[in-house]
Amino acid sequence: MAFGKNKGIYKTPAELRLMVQPGLVTAASLTAVREAIRPGITTLELDAVADRTIRSLGGISNFQLVPGYRHTVCTSVNDDIVHGIPGGRMLEPGDIVSIDSGAEVDGWNGDSAITIVLDDPSRPEEVAARRLLSEVTEQSMWHGIARLASARHLNEVGEAIEEFVEEHPSTRQGAVYGILTDYVGHGIGRSMHEAPPVFNYRVRQRGPEVKPGLVVAIEPMITAGTTETFTRDDEWTVASADGSMASHWEHSVAVHADGIWVLTSPDGGAAALAPLGVTPVPIP
Ligand code: MG
Ligand code: MG
């Protein structure tokens, strides 16, 4: 059949309800990391904070189910973009840190990432540029999520993300942003990574139909420079080829009969989506 590849990507209403709890546990783990992060803490300590939170809420880390990966989160610092392995690295003032976390509860998954820029009063301009990069990346994600609410086909999401970055005032003033094309978002459900791919940029294909039961992780990865990447010697960490700083934001979002709901945000995305004219609806 022509549509064989995306067959079975749509969840039933009962399955969507099972994805609420893993989303909330994933969100809680990132809230805990946000509260703990400061200069002097190691990325391994942040990993422990996330792990404790997920376990205390009855979940398990789904990253630990990825073959060869033994940690609960990925921590990507400065020019590391994604898949950074927690370790002894001590965070420093001014660092831009992306934390990617995921929880599995009763066999269903959540996946979400945030970026945090630590303060450094000694170099305000660099900190401001890093905060802007994170803000543009986060807002591009919310514009992608907002588009999902009215999209007919999934690949409109990437169009909205790219459009937002292109039209951002700082882009018009000469700021350079590279939207990664080597890595993309994905469907999510019983597995953390499922079909279909979710592009963060325009593509020729329209992608699968957006209809109730679709659950996707939308996760733009953006550098303040090139889209070219390389993998470090640890064979996990993906870094920007030109050393430019990077940001990564991600949410898992469900489409259901009455609207969309951001599973990995405690308010379903209401606060961030309100300025974009979208009101998320809890999964019935
Ligand atoms: Mg993730
Ligand atoms: Mg993901």
TrEMBL record:
Binding note for cofactor: Binds 2 divalent metal cations per subunit. Has a high-affinity and a low affinity metal-binding site. The true nature of the physiological cofactor is under debate. The enzyme is active with cobalt, zinc, manganese or divalent iron ions. Most likely, methionine aminopeptidases function as mononuclear Fe(2+)-metalloproteases under physiological conditions, and the catalytically relevant metal-binding site has been assigned to the histidine-containing high-affinity site.
Residue positions binding a divalent metal cation 2: 111, 186, 219, 250
Domain of life of the native organism: Bacteria
Binding site for substrate: 83, 193
SUPFAM superfamilies the UniProt entry points to: Creatinase/aminopeptidase (SSF55920)
GO-annotated molecular function: initiator methionyl aminopeptidase activity
Reactions this protein catalyses: Release of N-terminal amino acids, preferentially methionine, from peptides and arylamides
Key words of the record: Aminopeptidase, Hydrolase, Metal-binding, Protease
Class of this enzyme: hydrolase
Annotated EC: 3.4.11.18
Domain Peptidase M24: 22-256
Residues bound to a divalent metal cation 1: 100, 111, 250
Record-linked Pfam families: Peptidase_M24
Family label: Belongs to the peptidase M24A family. Methionine aminopeptidase type 1 subfamily.
Subunit composition and interactions: Monomer.
Name used for this protein in its record: Methionine aminopeptidase
Organism: Herbiconiux gentiana
